[in-house]
C-alpha cells in the first residue's frame, strides 16, 4: 500500500505541491488568526468540582467576591494615617470608568486591618473588573492599567488578572523569540548532518507546514470548544520537532535508495514503503499518546491534547504527501548545494561501523549492560518519590515583574491570606437571619473551623437568605499541603440535619484539581499503553516487542520525572536556568510530559525496530539484524534527538 502511494505521489507530484501551496497560503492568512481566538486565562480548574460549585453559588448569591486586580500603594510615612494619601487614592479609584470597573475596596472603605501592612507604610486596593469571563476582564484591565498610579505614592499592580495578562504576554513573546533562536541553529546542524542545503531545508519546510497547519486546526477547534493559549507551546515544539524527525527518516532513506534503485520513482516508492510506513505507525502512536490528554476535564490538558493531535496529524500528512512530492521533484538534486560531507554517509554495508560494534558489544553482555542502565535510571528517578504538588502563581514570572512583587508583598507584609482565604458557603433550610437555631448552628460551625490546626481565624462575611459565607484564614502558603489539609478538614466537619457546606477558594481549587487528575490518570496510562501495544503488535506481529517498549518507556519516564523534581522542585541549577524554585511542581506538568515523552520515545522505537525487522526479513539472523539495524539508524536517531533538544531547549 505504501509503495503504491509513493508511486502515485511521484506521478502527481506537481498536483500535490499545488494543493499544498494553496493550503499553506490559507493557513498563513487564516490559521495565524488563532491567537485571537484562544482562551487566554485559566483552564486548570476541575469542572463541576466542589470548589467550582462554591464559586458559582457565591457569584449568584453575593456577586463575585474575589478581587481581579490588587493595587499596592507604598509611602515613606504611615499611609493610612495621612489625609492626603487617602484623598489621592480614593480620587484615583473614583475616576476609573464604570464601564470597566464593577467595584473596589480599600482600607478607608472597609476599615479592615488586613489592608494595612505590618510597617503601616503600605496599603492596597482590590478592584473587581467588568466582564463575563477572564478574557473580557483582561481587556478591562488593559483599558485602565495606565490610570492606576497615584501621585506621591509608589504604585505596583498585581492580582489574578494582571498575573494572567503578564503570563500570556510572556508566552506569546517567548514563542517568537524561541523560534528566532532555534531556526538558525537547526539549519546549521541540519547542514552538518546532511551536508547539502537542499536536503537540510526539507525538514524545516515540513516543520513550517506542520506549525501553520496545526494553527489552522486549532482555530477550527476554537469554533466548537474552548482552547487554552498554552496549546500554542505544544504546537510549535511538536510541529517543528516531529517534522525534523520525519524529515530525517524520509530524506535519509531517499538518499540511500537513490544509490540502490534504478530510477527516482523506484527510490521514492521504496522510501515511502519503508520510512513512510514507519512515519505512519510512529505518527499514530504519538497521536494516541497525546489524545489521552483529552480524557481529563481540565481545559488546559484537553487543549494540549487538541493541539498535539492536530500537530501530529498535519506533520504526518505533510511527511507522506508534500515531502515525497518534493523529493520526486528534486531527485538526485536533493544532494545539491553541498557544503560538506554528510555526517551520515550512505552505507550499503551495514555490517561495520561504530553503532554496529556497540550493538555487538551489548549483545555479548546483555545482563551487565542492562543492570548498569536500569540502576542508573532508577537512581535518577528516586527524587520523584518525594514530589510535592503545588499550583502555578506569580512566581513563574521574572523577579522584576510587578504582579510577582505584589504577591510577595501581600504574603510577607500583610495579615495572612489577605486576598486568598478559604471560603465556605453554608446552606440552611430557611433564612439564617432572625432564626435563633440556625444562628447558633452557624456559630458552632465557625467555632469548629477555628479549631482546625493551622487556622488563624474564621468569620461570617455575608448572609443572604438561607446561605451564609464564612472566610477561613490560615498561616500556610495557599498552594501548600498544609492549606489543602485545612480544606480537607473543613469539608469533613459535620453540619446539622438539612444543612450542607461547599468549601472553595484557591487552596480548594488546587485540592480538587489534584483529585481530578489522580482519578483520570490510571485511565490515561491504560489508554496509552493499550494503544501502543496494539499499534506495535499490528506493525511487527509481536507480543514481546510492545511489552519491551512499554517497560523501557516506564524506566525512562521515571528517570525524567526524578530529574525534574531534583531541578525544579528542589531548585538545583535554578541560577543557571534562571527560574525561582517554589518547592513544588504543578501537577499538570508531569501528565503533559508523560504524554509527550511516551509518544516521542515510541517515535524512535518504531524507527529502529522497523529497520531491524527489514534486516531480519532478509537474513533471518537476529543478532545481525539488531546490529545492522542499529548501525543504519543510530546516527539518525541521535541527530533527531539532538535537534529536538534544540527545539525544546
Structure description:
It contains 22 helices and 8 strands. The chain is an alpha+beta fold. The two termini are 38 Å apart. The model has no long low-confidence stretch (mean pLDDT 86).
Short overview:
This protein has helices at 2-11, 13-29, 50-62, 83-94, 107-110, 134-144, 160-194, 197-222, 231-258, 264-291, 299-320, 322-330, 354-364, 366-381, 402-413, 436-450, 481-492, 506-540, 544-569, 574-577, 588-619, 622-648; strands spanning 69-74, 101-105, 122-129, 154-158, 422-427, 455-464, 467-474, 500-504.
Summing up helix and strand content along with how strands pair, one would put the structural category as alpha+beta
Beta-sheet strand percentage? Answer: 5-15%
Separate helix tally? 22
Shape: elongated
**What's the quaternary structure here?**
single chain
Along the chain, the helix and strand elements come as: HHHEHEHEHEHHHHHHHHHEHEEHEHHHHH
The largest pleated sheet is described as: 4 strands, antiparallel
User: In angstroms, what is the radius of gyration?
Assistant: 29 Å
Please report the distance between the alpha carbons of the first and last residues: 38 Å
Strand order of the largest sheet: 2-3-1-4
Helix content estimate = 55-70%
Number of strands: 8
Quick check: average pLDDT?
86
Uncertain residue ranges:
none
Amino acid at each position: 500500500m505504501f509503495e503504491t502511494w509513493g508511486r502515485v505521489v511521484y506521478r502527481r507530484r506537481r498536483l500535490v505541491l499545488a494543493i499544498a501551496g494553496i493550503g499553506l497560503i490559507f493557513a498563513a492568512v487564516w490559521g495565524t488568526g488563532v491567537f485571537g481566538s484562544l482562551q487566554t486565562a485559566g483552564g486548570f480548574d476541575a469542572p463541576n468540582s466542589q470548589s467550582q460549585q462554591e464559586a458559582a453559588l457565591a457569584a449568584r448569591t453575593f456577586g463575585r467576591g474575589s478581587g481581579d486586580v490588587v493595587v499596592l500603594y507604598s509611602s515613606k510615612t504611615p499611609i493610612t494615617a495621612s489625609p492626603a494619601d487617602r484623598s489621592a487614592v480614593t480620587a484615583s479609584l473614583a475616576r476609573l470608568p464604570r464601564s470597566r470597573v464593577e467595584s473596589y475596596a480599600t482600607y478607608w472603605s472597609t476599615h479592615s486591618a488586613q489592608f494595612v501592612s505590618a510597617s503601616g507604610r503600605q496599603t492596597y486596593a482590590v478592584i473587581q473588573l467588568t466582564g463575563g469571563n477572564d478574557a473580557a476582564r483582561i481587556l478591562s484591565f488593559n483599558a485602565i492599567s495606565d490610570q492606576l498610579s497615584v501621585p506621591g505614592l509608589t504604585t505596583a499592580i498585581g492580582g489574578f488578572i494582571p498575573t494572567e495578562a503578564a503570563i500570556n504576554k510572556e508566552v506569546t513573546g517567548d514563542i517568537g523569540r524561541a523560534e528566532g533562536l532555534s531556526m538558525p541553529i537547526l539549519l546549521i546542524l541540519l547542514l552538518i548532518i546532511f551536508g547539502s542545503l537542499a536536503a537540510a531545508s526539507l525538514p524545516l519546510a515540513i516543520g513550517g507546514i506542520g506549525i501553520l497547519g496545526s494553527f489552522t486546526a486549532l482555530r477550527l477547534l476554537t469554533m466548537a470548544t474552548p482552547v487554552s493559549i498554552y496549546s500554542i507551546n505544544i504546537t510549535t515544539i511538536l510541529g517543528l520537532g516531529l517534522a525534523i524527525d520525519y524529515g530525517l527518516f524520509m530524506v535519509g532513506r531517499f538518499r540511500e535508495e537513490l544509490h540502490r534503485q534504478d530510477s527516482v520513482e523506484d527510490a521514492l516508492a521504496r522510501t515511502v514503503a519503508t520510512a513512510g510506513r514507519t512515519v505512519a505507525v510512529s505518527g499514530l502512536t504519538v497521536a494516541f499518546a497525546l489524545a489521552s490528554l483529552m480524557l481529563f476535564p481540565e481545559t488546559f490538558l484537553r487543549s494540549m491534547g487538541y493541539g498535539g493531535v492536530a500537530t501530529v496529524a498535519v506533520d504526518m500528512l505533510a511527511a507522506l504527501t508534500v515531502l515525497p512530492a518534493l523529493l520526486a521533484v528534486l531527485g538526485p538534486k536533493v544532494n545539491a548545494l553541498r557544503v560538506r560531507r554528510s555526517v551520515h554517509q550512505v552505507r550499503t554495508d551495514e555490517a561495520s561501523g561504530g553503532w554496529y560494534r556497540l550493538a555487538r558489544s551489548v549483545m555479548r553482555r546483555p545482563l551487565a549492560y542492562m543492570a548498569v542502565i536500569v540502576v542508573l535510571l532508577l537512581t535518577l528517578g528516586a527524587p520523584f518519590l518525594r514530589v510535592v504538588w503545588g499550583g502555578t502563581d506569580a512566581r513563574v514570572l521574572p523577579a522584576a515583574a510587578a504582579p510577582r512583587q505584589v504577591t510577595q508583598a501581600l504574603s510577607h507584609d500583610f495579615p495572612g491570606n489577605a486576598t486568598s482565604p478559604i471560603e465556605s458557603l453554608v446552606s440552611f433550610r430557611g433564612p439564617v437571619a432572625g432564626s435563633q437555631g440556625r444562628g447558633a448552628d452557624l456559630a458552632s460551625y465557625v467555632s469548629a473551623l477555628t479549631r482546625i490546626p493551622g487556622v488563624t481565624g474564621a468569620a461570617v462575611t455575608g448572609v443572604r437568605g438561607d446561605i451564609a459565607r464564612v472566610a477561613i484564614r490560615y498561616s500556610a502558603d495557599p498552594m501548600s499541603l498544609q492549606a489543602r489539609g485545612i480544606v480537607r478538614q473543613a469539608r469533613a466537619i459535620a453540619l446539622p440535619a438539612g444543612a450542607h457546606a461547599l468549601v472553595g477558594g484557591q487552596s480548594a481549587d488546587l485540592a480538587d484539581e489534584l483529585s481530578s487528575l489522580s482519578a483520570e490518570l490510571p485511565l490515561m496510562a491504560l489508554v496509552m499503553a493499550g494503544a501502543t501495544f496494539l499499534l506495535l503488535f499490528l506493525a511487527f506481529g509481536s507480543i514481546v516487542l510492545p511489552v519491551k517498549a512499554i517497560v523501557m518507556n516506564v524506566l525512562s519516564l521515571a528517570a525524567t520525572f526524578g530529574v525534574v523534581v531534583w531541578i525544579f522542585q528542589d531548585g538545583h541549577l535554578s541560577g543557571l536556568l534562571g527560574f525561582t524554585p517554589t518547592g513544588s511542581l504543578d501537577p499538570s506538568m508531569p501528565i503533559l510530559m508523560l504524554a509527550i515523552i511516551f509518544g516521542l520515545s515510541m517515535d524512535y522505537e518504531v524507527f529502529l525496530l522497523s529497520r531491524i525487522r527489514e534486516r531480519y526479513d532478509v537474513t533471518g539472523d537476529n543478532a545481525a539484524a539488531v546490529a545492522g539495524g542499529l548501525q543504519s539508524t543510530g546516527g539518525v536517531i541521535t541527530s533527531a534527538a539532538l535537534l529536538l533538544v534544540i527545539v525544546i531547549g
